[in-house]
Design a protein that fits this description.
This protein has 113 residues and is an alpha+beta fold. It has helices spanning 4-9, 57-73, and strands spanning 17-20, 24-28, 36-42, 81-84, 100-104. The chain has two helices and five strands. A five-stranded antiparallel beta sheet has the order 1-2-3-5-4, covered by helices on one side. The longest helix is centred in the middle third of the chain and has 17 residues, at 57-73. It binds adenosine monophosphate and zinc ion.
């Protein structure tokens, strides 16, 4: 298994884990772009969000709901936060295991660069 996020999900590579259950893992980004920067991943490997299909709709929904709960826990819910899913080269994806960024603790800019 070559995927770094699969290795984090199974505990083979250490990470600062924020949440873990049988289907989802959340851990702090190694190069945080905001005071709070957490990555939420499915335990199951998908390279990009293009690989997700209708049977995965509950999994995708759970990722958003977990982000909301973590935002509360991290005390960024009131100030507001951003969820990001990068897909492929033009989307700026660098880690090819589906992940959702939870960013908060500072004001974000729009549009992105
Ligand atoms: P993306 O550009 O959307 O593919 O985001 C990949 C993210 O994974 C980047 O924000 C990286 O800083 C982060 N990252 C890469 N390797 C690790 C790691 N070992 N532990 C935590 N975060 C990582
Ligand atoms: Zn993987």
């Amino acid at each position: 298994m070559e995927c770094i996020f699969c290795k984090i999900a199974c505990g083979e590579i250490p990470a600062k884990i924020a949440y873990k259950d049988d289907t989802l893992v959340a851990f702090h980004d190694i190069a945080p772009q905001a005071p709070t920067h957490i990555l939420i991943i499915p335990v199951k490997h998908f390279s990009t969000i293009q690989e997700l299909t209708p049977p995965d709709r509950e999994l995708v929904g759970e990722m958003v709901l977990l982000a909301n709960r973590l935002a509360l826990k991290e005390k960024i819910a009131e100030g507001g936060y951003r969820l990001v899913l990068n897909c492929g080269k033009h989307g700026g994806q660098t880690a090819y295991h589906v992940h959702m960024h939870l960013l908060g603790g500072r004001a974000m800019h729009w549009p992105p660069g």
